[in-house]
Specification:
Rossmann fold, alpha/beta, 13 helices, binds magnesium ion, binds guanosine-5'-triphosphate
């Protein structure tokens, strides 16, 4: 995970460092009297600071942009990121001895600032919320919605919060049995209707059941769908209208690449997304998808899925991800 991006960003830093030899160093211009200028020229050789010039970094910036695209960062994000890096590298006098640290920390800070979103501590939000706290899981087919729900129910249970599942995927064969199998292992109740039933009605019943049984959280499983399927998107809108979820979580695969960004944008436009869970980070995801999502949609990634067992869910930590990259 992130290996490609890490390698490319590190090689970018090395290229820049290699392009800033002693002979190319220019001392920051200061307001000096003419008689001091000769002294300054001599001093420049011994100066502790240099300024990079556009020509020093032009090639490396182009390579960086390509590297980001290769790592699944979308074009706009990659452009914006490179522009920002370039500006920062050109506008600052760099301590001569610390070019390497400077380039790396510039990349790190730029990534952090561009990808920053509001933080959302879902556990404390759920605890403070009026009960039941209603969570809707949506996203493309096979992304890991149902598994993520099970992982979260397991996590909430450790904090004493009870969950009920709404089997609102009434579309895919065996989806209800899959949810019931998780529920049995976790000791969670499931509200279900038959296949083909109205998903909104299932969710509505689950909420009523949670109220009647003092259950803290309702997790609504929905059928996987593509953003291009109008009927299924309309169905999702209906669930949102009927249920008024407290949070709508888009579940996507971290390796899904640029297509995922378009999907997330379309789901967001149709229903409004509050947060993401990115799954399958244990596979060879390149990482760029997550950076694009954060930059473009400015919504938090709550958790990342790192495997198939209930424990394989970790809080998303931007700093940690960035420190893995550079
Ligand atoms: N390796 C890995 N596999 C995962 C992860 N999350 C889910 N899976 C697997 O991905 C497959 C699909 O997961 P589901 O939870 O059924 O996905 P879904 O989005 O509910 O699928 P549909 O309901 O068919 O749209 C299952 O085999 C899961 O075990 C993860 O973080 N890592
Ligand atoms: Mg499912």
């Amino acid at each position: 995970m992130f290996e490609l991006l890490r390698k490319k960003l590190s090689s970018f830093a090395e290229t820049i460092i290699g392009k800033a030899p002693e002979s190319k160093q220019i001392v920051e211009k200061r307001d000096l009297t003419p008689e001091l200028k000769t002294v300054t020229k001599v001093k420049a050789v011994f100066s502790k600071e240099i300024r990079l010039r556009e020509a020093d970094i032009k090639e490396a910036i182009c390579e960086l942009e390509l590297a980001l695209l290769e790592a699944d960062v979308d074009e706009d994000t990659a452009k914006k990121f490179c522009q920002e890096i370039k500006q920062r590298l050109l506008s600052t006098a760099i301590p001569k001895e610390k070019i390497s640290d400077f380039v790396k920390s510039t990349i790190r800070d730029t990534l952090k600032e561009l990808m920053q979103t509001e933080t959302m501590d879902i556990l404390s939000i759920a605890k403070k919320s009026e009960k039941p706290f209603k969570m809707l899981f949506l996203g493309p087919n096979g992304a890991g919605k149902t598994t993520t729900m099970a992982k979260l129910a397991h996590m909430f249970a450790k904090d004493g919060l009870k969950t009920i599942f709404a089997a609102s995927d009434t579309f895919r064969a065996a989806s209800i049995e899959q949810l019931e199998a998780h529920a049995k292992k976790l000791g969670v109740k499931v509200v279900k209707h038959s296949y083909g039933a109205d998903p909104a009605a299932v969710a509505f019943d689950a909420i009523s059941s949670a109220k009647a049984n003092k259950i803290d959280i309702v997790m609504i499983d929905t059928a996987g769908r593509q953003e291009t399927n109008r009927n299924l998107i309309e169905e999702l809108k209906k669930i949102v209208r009927v249920v008024k979820p407290d949070i709508k979580i888009f579940v996507g695969e971290a390796f899904a690449g640029k297509a995922l960004l378009e999907q997330a944008k379309a789901f967001d436009k149709a229903t409004g997304i509050d947060a993401f869970v990115m799954t399958k980070l244990d596979t060879d995801a390149k990482g760029g998808t997550m950076l694009s999502l954060l930059y473009e949609l400015k919504k938090p990634i709550l958790f990342v899925g790192t495997g198939q067992s209930y424990e394989d869910l970790s809080p998303f930590n931007l700093e940690e991800i960035i420190s893995r990259i550079i």
